[in-house]
Amino acid sequence: MELLRFATVGSVDDGKSTLIGRLLYDSKSIMQDTWDAIEHTSEVRGEEYVNLALITDGLRAEREQGITIDVAYRYFATPKRKFIIADTPGHVQYTRNMVTGASTAHLALILIDARQGVVEQSRRHAFISSLLGIPHLVVCVNKMDLVDFAQDRFEAVRDDFASFAEKLDATDITYIPISALNGDNVVDRSEAMPWYQGPALLEHLEQVEVAAAEDLEDGRFPVQYVIRPMRSEYHDYRGYAGTVAGGMLRAGDAVTVLPSGRSSRIEAIETFDGPVDVAVPPMSVTVRLADDVDVSRGNMIVASARQPIVADTVEAWICWMTDRTRLQPGMRLAIKHTTHTARALITRICSRLEINTLAEDIDADGLALNEIGRVELRTTEPLAFDSYRQNRHTGSFILIDEATNATVGAGMLLGALPETPPEGGTL
Q1: d(CA 419, CA 333)
Q2: Which end of the chain is least crowded, N or C, by CB within 10 Å?
Q3: What is the domain-level CATH number for residue 171?
């Protein structure tokens, strides 16, 4: 069965954790001991009903404050599809956690409180979802039971969001009125909203196209590990292990190893279960080449006919993820791109994004915690990449503080730039 990864996003208290709890409960994906535990906790806390949000809000601070802080992942399956859910926080101060949880999603569930309508955090998370290249957005207008399941209220929220979404790079947006607390239109269609003729949420999740999210045209294989057994029966064996990041790899295909530019062809593709003729994302495989080519961890094996960009001066969107320091020109950081690690120098802050208007402040001199900006940087070794819009795997990277080994930034590559003298010195 296909696997769909989706993230719940939106403002605080819009019902993201409750929706996940309802999905798991109504699809019979909660173990009895888990249900007994949250039922007991809800009773001890004096709540009028079983608090389904407790299924994902597991941290003590989350339960005390009634909010989501960290990203919680949950797995469930139906007869039609498997799912991995990322429950992301709604508070603006935890935007970095939202970016982390949504970065691998095929679909984003944007929850909006029917009473409050589209608020700043709704717009922020919708834009970040679009920036992250999530191909499918589902706007769940929640708490319809608190507005008497009014059709005109749902349509007003829908039209307001649709007006904002015209500025986003999003083409597939679905709107569903729900009540996560009561289960209306979550797993089963609601009798309380006969005016809504669309599918229930789970029905839509089972049908949405997943394969379209992957780049199946351009062969990309970042090498994670070189397999060279030191045993006599495998004397001539040399394989390259990793995860297919793009395209279809076939035995006999002409390939190029980057950044060296050496060419060969694929002799065989092997998996734990044996050899295969074709490998596609996100399969983990071992590739063997016909020629004795120098290949090591961090190199990328690509289709010779459709090669990526190779450059050491690039432009990217960056979400800054630490409050210890600001991102500024001249800053030196480690950069991890696919399986390749190098050092990077921030040469210029091009702009800082204003979330409410989606305008770019070109006078910005740095980025603070949770801010997003367009940045130029130079690396000590060239990166082999595609634009993030083309391939989310080869177009993304993280920035690491070498002193603390903490991840301080997440980036989305836009393209290569001509080399220019850096403002902050040399690497």
Answers
A1: 19
A2: N
A3: 3.40.50.300
Helix (H) or strand (E) holding 23: helix 16-26
CATH of the domain at 330: 2.40.30.10
* SS3 labels along 74-141: EEEECCCCEEEEEECCCCHHHHHHHHHHHCCCCEEEEEEECCCCCCHHHHHHHHHHHHCCCCEEEEEE
**Residue for token digits 């210890």?**
324
* CB contact at 8 A, 75 and 83: yes
Instruction: Identify how many contiguous H helices and E strands the chain contains and give both numbers.
Output: 7, 23
Contact assessment for residue 233 and residue 303, using Cβ atoms and an 8 Å cutoff: no
Helix 151-165 / helix 120-131 crossing angle, nearest 10 deg: 50
Do residues 321 and 295 both lie within one domain?
no
- The single residue listed with the structure tokens 């696997």 is 3
| Among 73-77, 220-224, 231-235, 374-378, the least confident range | 231-235
Nearest CA-CA partner of 249 in 303, 290, 291: 303
Contact 192, 184 (CB under 8 A): yes
Instruction: Kindly give, in sequence order, each residue whose CB lies less than 8 Å from that of residue 152, ignoring residues fewer than 6 positions away.
Output: none
Is residue 388, in this structure, part of any structural domain at all? yes
Tokens 């790079």, residue? 169
Residues 238-291: tens digit of each pLDDT: 999 999 999 999 999 999 999 999 999 999 999 999 999 999 998 999 999 999
Hey, how many other C-beta atoms are within 10 angstroms of the C-beta on 233? 6
Range of the domain at 143: 3-213
Cα(188)–Cα(183) distance, integer angstroms: 8
Q: Which range, 25-39, 174-188, 221-235, is most confident?
A: 174-188
Tally of structural domains, the chain: 3
Q: What pTM did the predictor assign?
A: 0.81
